[in-house]
Every structure is written in C-alpha cells, then in structure tokens.
C-alpha cells in the first residue's frame, strides 16, 4: 500500500468516526485537488443525501444574515447543518475573505453546525470549482441540510441552480427594479424568493413586481410556482415561514421524482468545472499557442484541439 493510500485509509477511518478535524482536512485536500482528496471522494460519494439549499442574490441583500436565521430554524427541528459559503477571493492570496463566517459566529460552538468558506477564485458562476466535491463530503459526513451561499455576481449565478436541490433568490426593496433582475435571467432559476429587509420602503412594490414577472414565466418542473416570502433577517421576521417554504419545495421534488434529475445535473456541473479548470491551467502554460491565435495563424478551435491532443499535426 502506497503512502497516499495509507493516508486516505487513516483519514477515511477518522471521517467515518465523525471526527470534525478529519472533515476539515478532507475538504482542504479536495479543494486543492490533492490525490488523497480525490480518493476519499470516490469512496464517500453517494452514501447519503442531504437537503441542499442554494442561497443567491446580489451583494448586500442580507444573504449571510438570512442564512444565519435559517440555520437556527433547522436546528430547532433537530437537523445537523452544513454551510458552504463561497466567498470572494482575495486578489493577493486567492483565499476566501471569510466575510460570511463573521456573520454566523453564534454557531461556532454548536457541534451540530459546520461552516466552511470556499474561495470563488474568480469562478464566473460565483461557485468555486470544488464546491460540489465539498458538498459530497458534507453529505457523507451526515449533515441533514446543507446551505450553499454564493458570492452574488449577477446573471452567472444560474450555476447555483445546477448544484442545489432548492434555489432561494434573495432580493431587497433597495436593490432596484425586480423586472430588471427578471430580464437578467437570475429570477428564472429561483424556486423561492425572499424579499429581505422588507421593513425598508418599497417592500410591497417589489412583491407586486415579482408576482407580475412570474406570471410571464413558464411553470417549473412538476408545476411548481415559486412563492414569495417577505423577511427581515435582522430580527427573524418571516424566516419561519420561509423555512416552511423550503420544506414544501423539497416535498414537491420527492413527490414528482425530481431529486435524481437534480443529482445528475450536479455531477454534470462538477465534471464541466474540472474541464474548465484544466483548460485554464493549460492555456496559462501555452504562451506560444495563444500567441499564434493572436497572430491569426491558428483559430481558437485549432488551438484547443492542440491542447487536447498535443500529437496532432498543426
């Protein structure tokens, strides 16, 4: 048995014993693409399923505070909760800025809650490439519900719908016209809406705009119609009703046999993310090939094929 296999076996044993430090180590290995992390993923993937909720919305909408309140609701029901907070990357270190964890500090002593920040590293969808892999580890560790909170970077937030079973879009009265969000395509991915900071002026207006916009959108799979919940995360107002809405959507997925479709799409997204990361690394070290594209000597397609098959004549 190789050293890596020994490391994987030892870590796997501790992981299955419920050692939180083993979970943290496994997440680090997976996020860095280490072979031991990949081996752990193969052995642990698919052993359990959690209720996965994606929380997205523009920066400043109160996603982190709302997530904090939803954690409390889940804990009241006896659920073990995992949180993946995909933070903006530091432009200097590439690491996560950890802003979301600061707002959830009340849970740091609760053994039934585990919060992990992942650096987006510039991922266009606001999701790190390792997010789905980390999600699989949290499921295998036995969490009942996992919240995935994204950076909040506009239209490319649609990636969260490919990862989560239920997608919650958080809007605020102060964020502008809800119809503009609809035009951007962000609203089309939401299974539920939360109008947070509802105590600010314009709350009722944005709800009416949402209702009007949703009337124009096609029904979701199984005939689901996204409900709208007014919330004030700072005080907890409306959060219990929102949590019940999340539960209702999960029941809908079960009743219509849609969960398996979600899981397959999640795996497809993960494979695509690996390919994209592979392509990014390849092009960074292919200076001459890129220069030939810039000079018009090669088309981008020819350059990409050359990266895929270096033995191909050019």
From TrEMBL:
InterPro entries: GTPase/Isobutyryl-CoA_mutase, GTPase_ArgK, P-loop_NTPase. One of its GO terms (molecular function) is GTPase activity. It comes from the Bacteria. The keyword Iron does not apply. CDD domains: MMAA-like (cd03114). Keywords: Chaperone, GTP-binding, Hydrolase, Nucleotide-binding. Belongs to the SIMIBI class G3E GTPase family. ArgK/MeaB subfamily. NCBIfam families: lao (TIGR00750). This is Methylmalonyl Co-A mutase-associated GTPase MeaB. It comes from Thermus tengchongensis.
